[in-house]
Known about the structure:
Layout: E1 2-6, H1 13-22, E2 26-31, E3 45-48, H2 54-61, E4 66-69, H3 81-100, E5 104-108, H4 126-138, E6 143-149, E7 151-153, E8 163-167, E9 176-178, H5 179-190, E10 198-205, H6 213-218
Parallel strand pairs: 1-2, 1-4, 2-3, 4-5, 5-6, 6-10, 7-9
Antiparallel strand pairs: 8-10
Amino acid sequence: MRIAISGASGKTGYRIAEEAILAKHNVKLILRKESQVPESIKSLDQIVTSLTDQKSLDAALNDCHALIIATGARPSIDLTGPARVDAFGVKRQINSCKRVGVKRVILVSSLCAGRFLHPLNLFGLILLWKRIGEKALEESGLDWTVIRPGGLNEKESDLDQENVVYTSRDLQEEAYIPRRLVAKCCIEALATPSSIGKIVEVTSGQDQPVTTMQKAIQGFEPQPS
């Protein structure tokens, strides 16, 4: 599968690219100007564009089968970032997918997306804007999956002892997950048809039972629209 990954220079994005390579996908990186990627993915196709450049974004996605959206507003004194990136930036990517025929989209969002009373909203109401981005994808008519990770950490060791907890929307609040496992979940979603049309919350822990996304989704209650 030819996969585009936007936000591929980010801490989660580059890990998604690495996991996509391991899964034998053909990967294209969609990057912002002046983005730097690690040596492990420098040999991949790289397209530099802006989320506001419609023609360039369309060209970047034109030959792809799927898009994984790992863009996200960075901490900044500019509190308009979450609106520009997590809502309108996501919408622009969705619209580009619709124009060029990319049917499958995975969006990396956040646990508690849509919540108002949450400390993260001190950063430009980020969780509210993330939910607007999610809604745009849900209403797009595309084959979508939203991955909502818990608090992200950089752990790379002993991940074979760390098991993912998959739940439906709005059931988890405070747990954490390594970025590497979030990346694995994105690639797992591509291989899990039952994840289409689902919001999947993911955290992890060493005391959690081993399962798969597919098995977990079988136990999901119907998700509200």
